[in-house]
Structures are given as C-alpha cells and as structure tokens.
Queue: 2 jobs
Job 1
Amino acid sequence: MDRTYFGQHSSAQFNEALESIRNHLMEMGGLVEKQVVDALEALLQADSALAEKVLETEDKVDKLEMLIDEQCTKVLALRQPAASDLRLIIAVSKAVSDLERIGDESAKIARMGLQLAEEGESPRGYVEVRHIGNHVRNMLRDTLDAFARFDAKKALEVAAEDNEVDLEYRSAMRSLVTFMMEDPRAISRVLNIIWSLRALERIGDHSRNIAEQVIYLVEGKDVRHISVDEMEEKLKG
Amino acid sequence: MDNASTLNKGQQVRRAANPLQAEGKPPMSNEHPYPEKTVGAPFVDDPKMRMRDVDVFYGDKQAIHGVSLDIGKNEVVALIGPSGCGKSTFLRSLNRMNDTIDICRVSGSLHLEEQDLYDPKMDVVELRARVGMVFQKPNPFPKSIYDNVAYGPRLHGLANKKYDLDEIVETSLRKAGLWEEVKDRLHQPGTGLSGGQQQRLCIARTIAVSPEVVLMDEPCSALDPIATAKIEELIAELSESYTIAIVTHSMQQAARVSQRTAYFHLGHLVEMNDTDTVFTKPQHSLTEAYITGRFG
Amino acid sequence: MSKTTEQVRQSLAKRYRAEKRFRAFGIASIAFGLLALLLLFTDIIGKGHTAFFEHYIQMEVTFDADTLGIDDATNQDQLNFANYDGVIRNALRERFPQVQSRGQKRELYSLISTGAGYPLRDMLASHPALLGQTRTLWLLADDDVDQYFKADRQGREDSRLTPEQKAWLTSLDDNGQVKKEFNASFFTSGDSREPELAGIWGAVCGSFFTMLVTLLLSFPIGVAAAIYLEEFAPRNRFTDFIEVNINNLAAVPSIIFGLLGLAIFIGLFGMPRSVPLVGGIVLTLMTLPTIIISSRAAIKAVPPSIREAAMGLGASPMQVVLHHVMPLAMPGMLTGAIIGMAQALGETAPLLMIGMVAFIVDVPAGPVDPATVLPVQIYLWADSPEQSFVALTSAAIMVLLAFLIAMNTLAVFLRKRLERRW
C-alpha cells in the first residue's frame, strides 16, 4: 500500500506546490548524478574540459538547493503540512542538503582530476576509483529512484550497499597507503586519488542519508544512526 | 554518453513513478476500507471514561458504528474527522445530551469510572454535573456575568451562603482566565462580552460545578485566532485538574492541545493514537488522507 | 468597456424602472389603507362626537310634598316612589302657562327626558330640607330636543318636533334657559331605551369581566399547552394531529364557538345565560389557538443553544423551561395573548349565541351578573330606531377602538420593554 502521493489534496495549489518541490528535487538529483558521473569520467580520462563543466554545474546545484529550501519553507508556513506531507517536506529539505554536499564532493573529484591532468597520471588507484565510483554512482541513482517511487525497500538496499562501499574504500586505502610507502615520489599524485576516493566514500554516505530520509518519508520511521540490520528490524516491526 | 542516456532514462522512469497518480485512482475508492478494529492505541490503563462498542442511531440511520475508546485521567483527547463523521454525536452521548433528541438511541457500554452512563438508575442531572459541556457557539445566558457562573452551583445547591457562591464565581472566573477582565462588571450582562470572553465565560460556567470531565464541542469555531489561542492555553491549564474531550475542526488545534487524537470517519473510529503519532505518521490511509487535507 | 458592463448598463434602466414601479405599488397600497382608515375615522368621529354632549333645560322646580306624594324626605322608600315627573311637569306648566289642552301638555312634557327625575331624587336624598322649597335646576332634555339643538337649520326643519314644541324651545333658548354640557352619563350609566340616558359603562364592565375570564383561562392554558407541545411532547402522529387541529381551530368561524358554548356550557352544564363567565369561556376557546400558536412561535425563537447550555449544566427539563425558555419567550407570549385578547374584545358573534345580546340596564358587578359587551352594545344600538342612537353607536365604536389601540400599544410596549437580546 502506498499512501504517499501528492495529488488529491482538496487544495490544487497545495498539490502544485508539492509537485513543484518534487520536480525541482528530481532536477537537482539529475544534475548532481550527472556531476558525479562527469567528475569520475574527468578524473579517469584526465579530461580537463569535462572537469571544468562539473565545476560550472556547481553553481546551478546551489541555486536549486536554495530554491527548494525556499519552497519548503513556504509550504510549511502556508499549509502546515501534516503526516506524509510533513514528512515529505522534512525529507526533501534534508535530502537537498545531502545532494548539495554530493555536488561539492563531485566538484572536489573534478578538481583532483584537473590537478592530475596537470601533474600527470597517478601510477595506481584508477581501478579502485572506477570500481568504487561505479558502486557509488549506482547507489546515488538507486536512492534517487527510491525517492521518486517512494520505495523504502530499495532505499534499504542502498543503505546496505553503503557498507560494502565503506569496506572497499578501507581496503583501497590500505593498498594505496602501502603503495605510497613503497614509492614516495608518487605521494602527491596518489594523494589526489585518495582524496577522490574519500570524496566518493562521502558521496556514498550522503546517498545513504538520502535513503534514510526516503525510509522516514515512506514508513514514518527514523532509521538514522543505526546499523542496517537494526533498520530491517525496525521496518518489520 | 552511455552514462548520460541511463541518466535520462532514470529521470523518465522517475517522472512516472507515482503509482497512485499513474493509475489515476481517487483516494476514496475501495482501497480505504474501514479497519476491522480501530488502528492505533484507543485504550489506556485506568481510564476516566471507558466506551465499548458504542452505536448511536438516529431513527433508522446509524450515526456511530461500534466505537470503543478510553479517555484517560487528566488527559486531553481530541476528536477529529470530516463533517458528519459523528464526532459531535459521540461527544454528546458522553453526557447524554442526545437524550433530548427523541429519535436518538445509544447502545453499547459507556462508563464514567465504574458508573454506567446509560444505566436506568443513573441520574442525568448528576451525570451532567460530573461531565460538563462547552458548546460550539458561545451561549451565555442573557443574565449577568455573575449569574451565568452562579447558575450551575445554585442549581445543584453547591453554595449555601452568598459568600461561598461569591468564592465559587471568583475561582471559576480565575480558572477561566476571565477574572481580571470582568471583576469590575460582574453584574453586567454576559452577552455584552466579546466572543472569546463569552466562550471563556461559558467555560467558567461549566467548571463552576466542578465537573470531572469537560466536553468541548468545537469551542473555538466561532472565535478569532487570538481568542482561540487564549482558549487553547486555557485548555492546557485546565487539563491539570480536569479530563477534557474536545471536538475540533482545526487539525492544528487538535495537534496543539491534545495528548491523544481520535479520528472518526462516517461514524467509525478509524484511528486513535498519541497526537504526535497521528499527525506525523498516521497508520491508516483514511487518517492520512484527512490529516493531509485530501478530502473533507 | 467590456461586453458585460455594456449589457449591465442596458438592463440597468429597465431594472430601476421595475424597482420604482414596485415601490410605487407598495406606497399606493399603504396610501389606500390609510385613506380607508381615515374615511372610517372621519365618519365615526363625525357622527359620534355629538354624543359626548347633551342639552339641559333650566326650570324652576318646586319640591312640593303633595305633588311628590311624600311627607318625609329622609325615608328611602318614600323617596324611591315619589312622583318627580309631577314636579317637573308642574315646573313646565308654570313656565308655559298658556298651554292648556291635553295634547299640548303631553307635547310640553316630552321636552324633558323621562330620566330627568333621578337627579331630583338624589338632591332630595342628600338635602331633605329641600322639601317644599323651590330651586332653579338644569333638567336633562329629551333626545329629540337634544337632536333639535344639535342639528343644523335643515335638520331642525326635518325634526320630529311639532311647531309648538319648536316655539317653546326657541323661547327657552332665547331666555338662556338651554345649555349644552359634557355627557358624563354616557360613561357612567348602563343601557337605556332613552338615548339621552343610555351609557356605555355597563358594556365596558361586561367586556372587562368577559376579558378577565378569558385572560385568566386562556393565557395559562395556552402557555401551558404551548410549552408542553414545544418542549416535552414526543413527536409522533398524535402530536402532529393535535398540531394540525390547533391550526384548524384558529380558522373556525367564531359563531361556531358560540353554538358550542350554548350547547355545552349553557345547555349541558346549566350555566346562566348572558353572563360574562360563559362569554369568557367561549372567547377562551376562540382565543386559545391564537395564544398557543404565538406562544409556540415565541418558544421556538428561543435559541436552542440556551437550552443546551442549561441542560449541559444539569438543569432538569422543567428548570430549563422555567429559568430560561419562559423568561425569554415571555414578550412574545404576552404579545400573542394581548393580540388574542384584542381579537376577543371585538368579537360579537359567539356572544350573541349565548345571550349576551339581551337588553340589560344594570351595570354588572361581577362575572356572573347578566351583562353585555362593547361590540354587542354597538350592534344593539345600531339596530335601535331612535335618531340619537346613531351618534351613540359611533361614540361606542370610538370607545371600543380606543381600547383596542390601547391594548395593541401595550403589546408593542411590552415587547420592547421585555425583549432581551443575546
């Protein structure tokens, strides 16, 4: 049973306001997702032009964030939303800041890409970046899908995936640190890769945060700061 | 490029992702059946009033269908629901105000502590002294402020001396937060007060007989926001010494003043729960639809 | 200018004209009503105002013991049977010694009212020393004489009086022996066959007692019935039936109530005829529906919120009615009662049926004395042949109208005074 829908409010204007917030959120999600994809591509292909494009998009994302926040405030003030509407507004306003942070992180990756393009390729780490990058990208896409479809199950999967990303990140870290100890000359370039990995890991965390908001939005249950097992437990109960 | 196309696809999918909208089903169709049992937690330990399987009929028409709920001690319970959902009818059956309507029939078990409200031996006058009522429209008697408040105590012989009566009047007006405003004009007609003051006068009149439970039937629907805020403040204060059941059309009001909220729909008690639960994550789709303003 | 505005403007003139016509029609209706009222009043006052005055003729009256046929002026029996007319006739003969023939004497005697002797008796009773003395007195003129003096020239020529009588009157008038005075006896005496003696007081008293009985019966019964029907009676076929019948009763022609009174109160219960008690009971029957209907309307107008408030505080249904509904409905109920009473006051037909149409000279002292009432008195006088009764009829109508206006004013006053706002 899905009871989270925007339509059928007695007030058509309310419907429109919520629909508009949702559309802007989806637009922002799309932009951020593309930023992540492009940043990765720029890093992996040492494509400076693409990296610049990522940095330019940053501005658009920030504007969207402010726009959505403003719309949420307006709905809160004018409509005093309750229940699912209230949860939607809360979830959106939190997801928006996570998305904005994801945008920031991908900008960071793009900047690393620019530096690497100047300084020359890192001798190691591209495999890890590609691997973790794909993983994180899927997470972000799934979490946005879950948001769009109010799909708590999918959101839970995203949260579970974040654990894997964390594991992969730690193992990649270990191998890169080992490599740097072996070859100190490459430290600065490998560090760029490490920062990128770090940013990807953060993007994973933000995606998980958004997934948690989706669960709150759909199920009305707060699943932050608990393990995935506990989450499942809570959702069943 | 590959990535970009997946992204676009994803967005397209997302746009069509609202399942209910996609199927175009109205929220009032059969997908909102009444629950077999009231959703949430309608019962409390050691209740002040205990209602079980209450049916109310107007002639052949059933207005209330098997409502069971508890009202706890010193608790504010809000009854909400769309117009004609039977919340007022239910409230009025709690002090047998429905008795005055010939065709109205109440069945089921209704208890005030251990006493059966509809026991033939139960005296309506006594019941109404214990379960007072405040009405939708401020309805002071066309008498002086003093006489309005003193009417109940006089009726039940609560004060034998003028001094005692004066004291009851003052305490009641103080509790209703009206004393400072009217102490110099106690003998002027109560109908000369403003709407909000009149309603507080009616509350003072009701609590002058020291009831255990105060029923309020949309007490603020005729008042402006400031007067409403005062009444809400008053309800919060009164809940320290009285048990209060309030019917309201304003969901925000229910959310502000009550500890527990009951949602009625077409004579059924759909959901009853802690107020914050009802207003943040109602468990039944009908409650959800009403709370979020999807019908009514 | 938009199309709508244009269309509105076009239709505007027409609408205003229609409105003006409508208003003019209303004003015309009111004007017609006022005109009719004015005509009625002018006619009545024009005819009736003369009845408030009557003429007196001055005579030298000698309280001659022989003529009176008494020897002791302190003896009440003797006073009652004394021949006062004889004294007056003596006085007339002395004033006009030339009159000799029998016929002429009779004409002379008829100048003075047959009731002129009563004041003489009263004088003698209070001053027994007057016996045997002579006094200059004003004696009440006969109604034909009265009419003669009140009439204009044409009227005087048409008068029933003989030329001799006219000559005598002219001679009296020229000597200043005729005067016009306020007709106090109209307001203080009962009915009489002689117009100059006839008064309205008997009818007023009769009306008063009848109304008293009606009020005492119909108000409590009507209010009680209204309260029961409105506040306590269950809604079912039976009460619906009662309600319909009360409304029907209000439309029943009043003479039916008279027949009912005749058959039941007089025929079955053997109550006396012509008494205000029976009249009052019959009028009660007639007034009850009015009072019940208006009282119910007044009770219905009491806001239900007041009832709920009282009930919510634990007042019993009776307390609700006594403390709240009755005081708030009282102005309406009183107004209804007064209007019902005013209706009853003007009622004739049912009273005719129970014999309150009899010729009754004595002023009734209580509700079981035979009496008549104002409208019946008017009916009786209107039926009488003497010319003077025309004026009397109109005067009586004026009195009745004054009472009705007073009662209606009281109703308005009470409503204004007692009405409480909430």
Note: Residues 3-48 of chain C form the longest helix (46 residues).
Job 2
Amino acid sequence: MNSLGFPILSLMLAVPFVAGLACLFSSANGARWIALLATFANLALGIFLWDAYQIGGPQWQFVERAEIFGPFAWALGIDGIALMLILLSVFLMPVCIAASWTAIDRRVPEYMASFLLMETLMVGVFVAQDLYLFYLFFEAGLIPMYLIIGIWGGANRIYASYKFFLYTLLGSVLMLIAMLWMVNVAGTADIPTLMAYDFPPDAQTWLFLAFFASFAVKMPMWPVHTWLPDAHVQAPTAGSVILAGVLLKMGGYGFIRFSLPMFPEASAQLFWLVMGLSLVAIVYTSLVALVQQDMKKLIAYSSVAHMAFVTIGLFAFNRQGLEGALIVMLSHGLVSGALFLCVGVIYDRLHTREIDRYGGLATNMPGYAILFMLFTMASVGLPGTSGFVGEFLSLVGAYEANSFVAAIATTGIILGAAYMLYLYWRVVYGVQRNADAAAMPDLNRREMAILAPIAAVVLWMGVYPESFLAPMSNDVGLLLARIERAAPSSDSQLARTAAPATPADAEHGSAH
Amino acid sequence: MNVQLIVFLPLLAALVAGLGNRLLGNLPAKFITTGALFASAALSWPIFLGFMTGDISPYVVNVLPWIRSGNMIVDWSLRIDALTAVMLVVVTTVSSLVHLYSWGYMEEDPDQPRFFAYLSLFTFAMLMLVTADNLVQMFFGWEGVGLASYLLIGFWYKKPSANAAAIKAFVVNRVGDFGFSLGIFGTFLVFGTVSIPAILEAAPGMAGSTIGFLGMRADTMTLLCILLFIGAMGKSAQLGLHTWLPDAMEGPTPVSALIHAATMVTAGVFMVCRLSPMFETSETALTLVTFVGAATALFAATVGTVQNDIKRVIAYSTCSQLGYMFFAAGVGAYGAAMFHLFTHAFFKALLFLGAGSVIHAMHHEQDMRYYGALRREIPLTFWAMLAGTLAITGVGIIQIAGFSGFGLAGFYSKDAIIESAYASGSNAGGIAFMVGIVAALLTSFYSWRLMFLTFWGKPRWAASEHIQHALHDNHHDRPADEHGDSSHAKVHAPEGTGGYHPHESPWTMLVPLGVLSIGAIFAGFLFHGPFIDAHEGAAFWMGSLAFDEHLMEEIHHVPLWVKLLPGIVMIIGFLIALQAYIRNTTIPARFVGQFGVLHRFLLNKWYFDEIYHVLLVRPSFWFGRLFWKRGDEGTIDRFGPNGAAALIRGGNVLTARLQSGYLYTYALVMLLGLAAAATWAMAR
C-alpha cells in the first residue's frame, strides 16, 4: 500500500469505469450529468495526486501490487512523467463531456459510457507497471475510440475506422511478440525492473523495431500517419480532442517508458531512422497542412509535425531534448485539443469544416477570435505560451545532438506560422462572405467555460513551466543516467585551437 | 519597483482594454492605455537622466524563474543599464505620444479598445525585449513585438491586402527568427548559458575556436554572430528580409510611426549593440554587418526616390536609415548607431505622424500625386514635417574654430556615422563611407521630393477618388479606407481643388507633432555628448556596449572635406528636388520617358517580391499539393491501407467477414494474444 493509505490509482481507474456502467442504465440527461460528475471527481483526484506527489521522493510512488497469476500482476505506480500525462488526461475529460453536451443527441448513454471507459483505459496506460497490463490498457484504449468514430462519426466513418484499425493492428502484434520474448528472457513482466535490464545489443535492435512499429503508428510518425487526418475528420469534436490530446501521447510515452530505457544501444543505433522520419514529417506535413481546405485535416497534419518535435527531442539523448519533448507532449495535448474545440464551436453552428465557408468571424464572434488567436499562437510556438517552452527546449536538445537535425527542424517554426496564420486569416479575418456564417452568435457560457481553462493552463505553462517541469526532472535525470552511455556523438564539437582546425582535429578537439 | 511599473503597466492596460473591449467602451479604454503609457514614460526619463549624470549604476531586477532544464536556466528579469535606459525613453516616449495621437486619428474607428490594447501590448513586448538579461527573454520580446505588429498591420482585418501584409510580416520575420533561434541554440551549446552578461564575458575567450556546423568547420564566434544577425536582419528589414516593411504600411499610420519606424524595427540594431562585445570577436561578422547595412541603406534609398505613396516613401526611408545604423555598428561605432537610433526615433515618428495628419486631412488619400499646395491648408502639420525633413537630411553648421555649431538631430547622428565609417580605416568602412554619402544625397532628394509634392506647387486633389468620395457622398470615410499602396492608373493628376479644403487635425494629433518636433530639433544637440563623445560616452555607456573611445576620438580628426561632404550632398539633393518638382515639373516625366527600365526597376523595388513569389511561395504550395495528392493519397494510402483493403476484398468470405467487423477482429486478436501470453507463462 502507498503512503496515502488508500489505493488512489485503482480508485482513479474505478471511478470512470463504474460511472460508465451507470450511464448505460440511465437517461440521456442522466448520463450527461453522471459523466460530468465522474470526470470532475477524477480531476479532483488527479489534483490531489499532484499535490501528494513528492518531488525528489522515490521514483515510483503510490505503488500498488496484487499478484494475479504467473507473471501477471495488478501492478500500478507512477513517476513524475506519468503523473503529468495523467493530469493531462483527467483535465481534458470534463472538457470533452461538456463539449459533447448538446452536440451529441443520439445514443447519449452509450456515448458517455464509451468516454468514461476510455478515461479508465487512458489512465491505465500511464499507471500500469506490469508489461501485460500495459498492453491491455494500451490496446484496449482504442476500442472505445473505434466506437466513437464508428457510431458518432461523420459520413465516411467506416473508412476512417478501418484505416485506424489496419495501421494499429500490425504494430500491436509485433509489440506483443516482443513483449513475450522480453518476459521470457528477463523473467519478469515488471516494468521498473525491465527498465534497468540490459538486453543484448543485437536483440535490442529487433525489440526496438517491434515496439517502434506500434509507437510510430500511435505518434503518428511519417509515413504511417495517414490514418490520423481521416480519423480526426470523421471523429466528433470530443473524440478529436481525446485523440489529439491523449492518445497521440501514448506513442511518446511508450518511447520514454520502453524504447529508450530498455533498448538504449538500439535507440542510439537507430538515431538516424527516428530523426530522418521526424525531419521528413516536419517539412512534409507542414507543407501539406498549408494546402488543406478542411479545418480538421489541417490541424491533424499540424499534429504530425508537432509530434515530430517530440521524437526529435526524445532521441537527442540530453536533458533539454527530453524535457522539451515532454512539454511539447503536454502542450500539444492542450493546444491541439483546444484547436479542435474551436473547430467544433463553429462546426456546431454551420455543420461544415470547409474553410472557405467561413470568414470574417472576428466581426460577429470577437470572443471566439481572441481565444482562437491565443491557441493559434500557442501552436506556432510564441514565447509566453506553452508551445514555445516545449519547442525551444526540444530544439536546443536537438542542436546539442546534431546541427543538421536542428537546422531542418527549426524550419518548422517558419512553416508552422505560415499554415496556422493562413488558416486564421481565412476563418476569422477577411470579409463576411456567407450570410449564415455572419449570423453565427459568439461563444456561449458553456463554450467559454470549456475554452477559458485551457487558455489559462496554456499561458501558465508558457510563463511558469516550472510547475510542470519540476515533477518530471528527477525522472528525466534517471532516464538520462541510463541512456547517456549510448548517446551518439555530436557533430558540433568545439575545437579551441587558435590555428585553423581540420576535420580530423575536430575529432580530438576538447569536447564541450 | 519603478522598473516593474514601466514594463508591466502597459501589459495591465492592454489586458484591461483588450478583454474589457466593448463592455468598457472607447473612452475608458483610451484613458487607461494612454495613462499607463504616460506613467511609464514619466518613470523612464529619470532613469535615463540618472545614467547621464552618473547617479545610477546598472542593475538587474529578478521577477520570476522561467525555464529550468539542467544548465538551461532562464529567468524573467529586467536589466537596467545605459543601453536599456536609452531604449526605455525612446519606446515609452514615442509610444505615449502615439497613443495620444491615435485619439484623434482613430476617432471614427468602431474598434478602438482593440486598437489601443494592441498598442499597449506592443509596448510591453518591446520593453521586455530591451530589458532582457538573457537571450531567451530577448526572443520573447522579439516574438511579442512580432505578434503585435502582425495584429496591428492586420488591424483592418476585412481588407485582403492588410491580411496578406500581416502574414507576410510575421512569416518573413520568422525566417529571421530561424537564424536567431539557431544562434541561441549554438550560443547555449558553446557557452552553456543564455545569460547575456555571462556570454559577453566569455566571448573573447572563444575567439579563434572552431565548431562543427552542418558538416563544416566554422569559426565559432563568426558562426554565432552571423546566425544572430540573421534575426536582426529580419526584424530590422535589412536587404533580403526587408520585403515585409513596405507592405506593413497597410496598418494604421500611428502604428507605422511607433512600430515600423521608431521602435520595433530598431530592435535588430539594439541586439547587435547589446551583443557588441560578442560581435567584436569576429572581424568577418562585423564586415558582413557593414556590407548588409550599407547595401540596405543604398537599396532602400534608391527605391524611396520613385514611390508615390507618402507612407511608402517614409517606409523605404526607414529601411535606409536602419542600414546606416547597421553599418555604424559594423565599423565599431556602436555609440553612433545607438545615437542615430535615438534621434531617428524622434524625427521618423514625426514624419510618419505628420504624414498621418496629411492623410487625415486628405480623407485617406495617400498618393502624393494628388496632393500639392497643402502648406497653407494645414500649416501646423507643414511646420512639423519641415522640422522632420530638416532633421533627417541633417541640416546644421559644423563647429569651426571656437564657434560652436548647431544642427538638427540627423546632423549629429548621421554625420557621426559617416565620419566613423571613414575613420575606421577598413576596406568595408571605406565602402560604407561612400555608400553613406550617396545615400545621404538620395535621402535629401526623396525627403524634399515628398515635401515639394505635398506642400508646394498647385493643388491636384480634385481627381482623387477619396476626395471625390468625401465631397459627393458627404460621408466620413473611416481610417479603414486607408490603403497601403496607391495604384491609381493616372500618372498626371489634373490641377484643382475640386472645391475641397483640407482641415487641420485636432489637438490630440498636433500635440504629439509638436513634442516630436522639439525632439527632432534638439535631440542631437542636447545628447550628442553622452552618446558619441569619446570621454563622456565612455562614462555614459559604462560598458553596456563595446564603446570605442579611440574611434570616437578619431572622427574629430577626419579631413575637413569628409566633414563637409554630407552637408554638400544634402544641398545637392535638395537642389535636384527643387529643380525637378518646383522649377520645372516636366523633368520627372521626361526622366521616366528616358530611363523607363531603370524607373520600372526601382518602382518595382528591384523585383524582390516577384522573385520570392516564384522561388519560395509558389513552390511551397506546389510541394504541399504534391505531397498530399501524390504522396499521402497516391502512394502511402494506395499501397498501404487501400491496397490491403483491395487484397481483402479479393479474398474469401472469411476475410470479408473479418473486414466487416474490425472492432471484433481487433478485440479478438488482442485477446488471443493475451491468451497466448498466459498459456506460455503457465507452461513454463
């Protein structure tokens, strides 16, 4: 049992699960209220968890363990990284429920139950300390997402969920095989133990690739990203928020929890694979985002580019890179979630995502224009918003690792500004082209209550990121201690010789 | 505490006015923002004067920790030294006057709280930039002013041209920020810190070292300085990254005065001066700074001579004057660069606000071909513009044997720059000196051309669409009708007033003109001592920039012809303008007829925009579509999921059934997997 005297992590899994069951047996309105209360209860538990978490305390806190059979165990526990991702999840859930309050009017109890089940499974991913338990949560989390897209989605939802399925299936099968092998060799399914286990370097490469197949799809990395735009376009607003906000973070979490600590040598060896795919993603998907006509598709493509900053930071093998990647994950969760909510606000009014159908919204929706501007700026990484802190640290880390990576990745700040401001211009500025768009009312109280808290956290994370970095810094340090031995050498070696140095000298030049 | 008030009062005012907006109403929003700015200005001047008398020594106020990641330690803090103090008075003074001016200028705009909120937000960001103690906070201010500039250029968001200009400004600045960012990353890699004092202290020790960058070995300090300078080029609209500045004239004129003349665009010069000990370690970087500055000074001046839009003339003039500041910094005359920045802020803000007053009187007509003879109609504006013109062209009498000279602002600052370039003795300095002389001639020409076309000659406004509009529809056109580039078809406007008589602007606009006129007349005379005098300067700057006492002493010993030349070319420029626009007004048309190609080349601004459009903008969209249609849909999807679907469709009934229930299949596979795991585990 943990220091609190009650199994808080199990409780956070149980609250939405039980509430989800209750939803199935209640009316539409009842289900809405049950879901809202349950998600708020979990948010309260999450904040309590944040408060109770001891920074600089033991690596794994609030640990619970109950053997089931064989190597299977109900093993839960969190470190600072998991804590922050849990907070992101429980923060976004009430937002999602509120965003679906009126937009969903069909099969409401089932919808709310799906969301609550998803919350259980998402939190489960971040708290699981048993390999198989993690696998169960990780893969099962997609089931409610399929349901949400497949039942409450748009016209082309079957194709979207099919694509989603196909991509994920292959990855998860390979990951499962790798897990079986690992448990067999290491003799344990305990994640903390495995994180310190040294697999033979040649086996590491295969294991890394097997996990990579799954995480790269979840991230998503280029070229296995094409399911994301379709899934986003078809998903209802709240589905997109959870998809972009939390589900995409599971890939990054997987890299931090598995790939890097368990296979450090393979991670270093495949440095250029990860970096290469990430760099292609930044340039390629940013350009694709520039020419989109569908708002959700544009934001979906921008997500792929932003997630590439995560992988670049993670595989930089240094503190700034890792911490930057983590902040990008948190920030992107909030900002892209908020951007999808912004799309949802006007989608609910006009029922189209076509950019050209809007225009001039600053005139009739000034409040909306301000918030949309804030999230746009956070997305392009304006200092003072959360987006900057993450992108900046991740690029600092990338430069320390390799100047090519940093130089190409930094073009993302130019392209990002171009496609986001171009979007903002076409939707919010300009003349009012369509009478129906011009007649749309500004944000109502519910919508304001959904967006304002996200805006507040985006600014908080941008101005004083210490609140979010501090709980994670110890764990990043532990991860660094584990992987530093394998860190690839940087190309930016400093040579302090007065005479002009030749490239050969640089190899021996006094390292920084 | 004063410093916090100076910086954060504008932020507070911006938040109140911006979020209060229509709830609050126009008048309270204007009072709050303008009041906050005047308070900031009132608190700033004592600090500046304190540095002049030597009563204050530099200090740093810590506000809040910002980013902590290993040895990347960044704080929100406010650094106050002589360099900051100069910027504080420039920013708060011009900003408060522009706030006041906007009461009159924006009187009929329906969206005033938003405008004033943006202005105050800009001021806050600019103050954060100039008080930065580390590179990252400087970058915060840098991007913050970029945001405010974007918002203000696009203030009249219904106009497509304003939106295009706003995006262009932001994105082109981001190209500069690409360099700035890499510069910060590299600086952190080399020095292990982003604290400016720590970097400047360690910089000389890094001279001569090399570093790997993109597969090359580069001189460390040269690489870092050039990367940082690319950022400065973007913000200060230097040749290559200048294209956004003329388009930025789409914004309301007070914005042009504050952001695109007096303050934001000088941030690049400020950056180079702030980091001057770093730049001093790299001869190559300084030479680059000199050449880029000189090239810009010349380029922008040539383009300025043929523009017809009054604001565009002043915009190119700004671009050109920024070039002067850069080559001053490049030859090591940082004090002179800052001095020109200081005086330029007054006379250029004056010229812009004067132009705004003319535009206001002319119902938002901006084409000088439709002006003429306004001297008598709006005399106060005329006198203010005259002071500005005399200041920018550098009118004054040099000191001869005991007889103390006097001149207007530009006389002290621009001449100091030209003399420093000569005195520096380097090749780059020599070229910069010659370019500076030619650009001074052009400056005088285009400034007087503007004056003559606007205030002298016969009235030509009868044919102006804006005036026609005002006369016949009897409606007050709003400032939103202002347009960035006059592209009327006619070249020759017929003479005549059309029965319209321009009216002088209200006092809220005239008071700032008056105050800035005083600045334009006396700023040079009063402050040249602390800024550029060899002895007073060293005591004033106290190491806040790399002040070169020797060079500043040298400029007093340049040959007499060097001292006289700027004045001579100034008079030549004036005489050419006089001849062409007063005495014989057929000369411009004949010139255009004879040198049509040259005229078109200049009128089209050396075709930079067209080249960029073909080389960068169009290919970006083309590649975007290619990657989307051919890449994602044509390749990845076709051979990936769609290919798999086709395979399944061609398969047997079993797979068809699987396909119809992905969810069940998925759950099944997952459970089978777990079951396999369990079996395996138990079998062992």
Note: Strands of chain B lie at 59-69, 72-80, 210-213, 216-219, 396-397, 406-407.
